Amino acid sequence: MSEEIWTIRRVLTWTAQHFEKRGVDAPRLTAEVLLAHVLKTTRVRLYVDLDRPLEKEELAAFKALIARRMAGEPTQYLTGVREFYNRPFKVDARVLIPRPETELLVEAALHALPKDGPGTALDVCTGSGCIAISLAAERPQASVLATDLSPDACALARENAQALGVADRVSVLHGSLFTPLPPDARFQVVVSNPPYIASGEIPGLSAEVRREPRMALDGGPDGLALLRQVIEGARRVLVPGGLLAMEIGETQGPAVQALLQAAGYDNARVEKDLERRDRLAFGTQPVANQPRG
Ligand SMILES: C[S@@+](CC[C@H](N)C(=O)[O-])C[C@H]1O[C@@H](n2cnc3c(N)ncnc32)[C@H](O)[C@@H]1O
């Protein structure tokens, strides 16, 4: 950028073109989100102030973000925030950036929690806490436990629970899958978006995704390692009739359905996301049997 006067309009036009030429996703939107972040305003406000010139410091701060975005840092790590289920979650390199398709998982899990009564939910592999916190926020009498193997993710999930006013009903426990749970803990819903990408596919992911924690992505040699353990473990902690709801990779539907059936769930099924790709898998704890010991 030269030393001429840079208004919001001009900066946005220049940056959107620059991003487009370099193959950055959603170039105009990305330019607006980053500029709104630097100017501590909203994207709508930018349009009201299109002719406002940027101060030197503002321009310098924006240029620095452009450079980081060009180097592959995800937009949400740069702004430090991601909207999920209508709430702002703090995100940074400690956690996976919540994806819109995961909102479908929240939607499904909410059906299994009473609207006007107490409920119990477990979110295994909680990351930023987006699923656990959304469930607690949408069901004001529900108690939610959340686990994650990454102590950094647990710390951020706790910060988010605090910031979003549900820390009294969301407990974040550090440890692998079900191991940090009290022995007698039972849940109406177990929900999980575990790592499910096959290890060998990780080098081929976009630069942005590879900036996310490896522990959040790597599902072992076939991508199913964690899903298998969630399917097995949830049988031990679900109440009769309780729901297991998981996010899965688009090629994993048949394998996961078979795993759910083999583990003894009722009503094992796979559902698609809005782009018609297998994305969610469900099983119900049989009512007749006790949970497996
Ligand atoms: C795909 S991310 C999902 C994060 C969040 N639930 C979401 O939907 O955005 C998977 C998370 O699982 C965690 N994780 C990986 N292995 C785990 C394990 N054995 N036990 C618990 N959490 C694990 C990672 O640290 C990461 O936060």
TrEMBL record:
Q: Does the keyword Nucleus apply?
A: no
Task: Give residue ranges for domain Methyltransferase small.
Answer: 110-199
Reactions listed under catalytic activity? L-glutaminyl-[peptide chain release factor] + S-adenosyl-L-methionine = N(5)-methyl-L-glutaminyl-[peptide chain release factor] + S-adenosyl-L-homocysteine + H(+)
What EC number(s) has UniProt assigned to this enzyme?
Answer: 2.1.1.297
Domain (Release factor glutamine methyltransferase N-terminal) ranges = 11-80
Which Pfam families would you find in this protein's record?
A: MTS, PrmC_N
Return one GO MF term. nucleic acid binding
Q: Which domain of life is it from?
A: Bacteria
User: What are the binding positions for substrate in this chain?
Assistant: 193-196
Q: What Gene Ontology biological process does one annotation of this record name? A: methylation
Question: Keywords assigned by UniProt?
Answer: Methyltransferase, S-adenosyl-L-methionine, Transferase
Which EC class is the enzyme in? transferase
Report residues binding S-adenosyl-L-methionine. Answer: 148, 193
Write out the similarity annotation.
Answer: Belongs to the protein N5-glutamine methyltransferase family. PrmC subfamily.
Provide the function of this protein.
Methylates the class 1 translation termination release factors RF1/PrfA and RF2/PrfB on the glutamine residue of the universally conserved GGQ motif.
List the PANTHER family: HEMK METHYLTRANSFERASE, MTRF1L RELEASE FACTOR GLUTAMINE METHYLTRANSFERASE
Q: What is this protein called?
A: Release factor glutamine methyltransferase
